[in-house]
Structure formats: C-alpha cells, structure tokens
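Q: We require from you a single protein entry containing the residue sequence and its fold in token form, and nothing else.
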Amino acid sequence: MKTLLLTGATGFVGFNMLAQEAQQGTRILAPVRSAEKLRRRLECEGISHADVVPLETDPSKWGDLRPTHALLSAGVLFARTREEYNSVNVDWTLRVLDVLPRDCRVVVLSSQAAGGPTPAGRQARRETDADTPLTMYGQSKLELERAIRRLHSGRAITILRPPMVLGAGDSATLQLFKVAAGPLRPKPGLRKKEYSFIDVRDLLEAIRVSWQSNQVGPYYIASDRSITDLELIHYAALSCNANGLTVPMPQVFIKCLSWIVDSHPKLRAAAPSLTRDRVLDLWVDRWVVDSSSFRETTRWESKHTPEDSLQSACDFYVRTGQLNIKCKQPP
C-alpha cells in the first residue's frame, strides 16, 4: 500500500495533492499544527479522512512510520526576517528528511525564486544559469537545495522549482480577483511584466512523474506558455464577468506602501505579502523559465492554459464564499 508523508497538507499545493491521493486510497501522514483544522477542511471538501493520519510537527516524535513516498511542500511564504524563513524552509525540512527512510521517494518543492529572475537579454532562465535570488524567501529555498545536495547525496530526492502556481484552492491570488472585479484595476509598475506559471493540476502530475523517475534536479517546471501581468488581470476579470479599466501604478508608490505596511503590525497582518523584501520581485520585468530539461527527461507535459487556471481559481473562491461575485459559466 502506498503511504505518503505530506508536509503542507493544509496549504494550496499540499491539500490538492491530499485530495487526489485520498481518492486513490493512499494512506497519508500529515504533520500539521492543528489536526482539528485539517479535519474541518476535509469535511468541508467532502473528503474521507479515514486514511489521513495527522502527525505532530516534531519529526522526532513520529516513530517508525516508513512512508513509501514523500512530498515536502510546507514553507513560509511571507516573513519579516531571514530567521523566520529558514526555521521552516530550511531547518524543519531538513529534520523531516533526516527521519525518512533512505528508500522513500521524495519530492521537495523549492521555487523559481531560488534561481531568480530571467537573466538580462535572455528569453528564459535555465538550470545552467547562475542562481541570483532577490529575496530572503528565495535565498532560503536556495539554501535548502544546497543543504540537501550536501547532506543527502545518493538519495532519491527530486527538487522542483515551480513558478507562480494557479488553480483551485489558492489563497495568494484572491486579491487579484478582488482587484479584477472592480471598476479600476491597479497594476504594479508602468512597464509590462512577463511570468511563467503552472496550473496546480500540472504541478501534481509533475510530482508524480518525479516519484517514478528518481531524477535529482533542481528542475524548473512550468507551462509552455508564459503570461503577462496585463493578461493576468484580464483573464481574472473575464472569470469574474467584470469590465474595468487597468491602471498602471508607479513602482515607487508600491515601494512606499510596502514601507508603511512593514511599519504597522495590523497592516502586516492584513497584507502579509506586501513586505519590503517580497516587493523586490516586482521591480523585475521578466520571470520566465525554460522547463525543457524536465520535459525531455520525464516526458511530462503541461495541459492547462492560464484562462483555465484562473477560471478554476475563481470558481473555488465563489464556492467557498471568499468572493461574492457570479463567475463566468463554462460553455
């Protein structure tokens, strides 16, 4: 019987994996801070939790679990200090790896941020390019990758670097839809920006392919189609049946706003992603990666368009009551 050790089970990617694996009868071991929160989420989504076993977050207390597969997707996305990022993204993840059996097939989710933006004068970043993370988040992911290669060489551990992930269950793009549904839609920066993305369903398939292939990486994995910031707003608005005007905002305004948010605890709680560190990513016009290496190695292919991904996210927000609009109905 397949047994999956899944960190980040209440997060975006983790819960999507949990939902799919639970339907296939996989026994799932889920370290979580709140077993009750996980149970409520499972019941809300109509997922049987008979084979979902909540674990304490301290790996030393897990005993001899011997999972056959592992997905380490837990991580701190928004923090104020390097120590906050490293405590989970590096230190805790390494502790989890230390207690897993050597024959366990492991996938670790890193991030495009570990590599940094597309190098100047290039159309896309590849694995052979020098890593230049801009933020403390990206630096923590790169530190984790280097520690895995140093401490766990020879093990079946695949490191994947996804870019922006879109789809049902996401919380990060909720603000995008709220903006897109309004009459005026502010866009950070005056210039057009271009990004790689991946649908969460394609990402889950890439993880399953990685379990089978035992490749090490790190690999960039993304849709074969990139998307601009203007298209993101446009497709989100189409999903919401909204007609508004997109208004570019000078980046200096965003920088000043991030300083204000960082200076007030209540604002930090309301806008955790608007930190002086994370807005550094907004200054760059191109975050596009080339995932041909992973495709050629595994024969994996992305299937979902940005329109499809954003429609799926919109439907989720409406269904869960987070967005009070009438989404576009599929044909």
About this structure: The two ends are 40 Å apart (CA to CA). The mean pLDDT is 89. The longest strand covers residues 3-7.
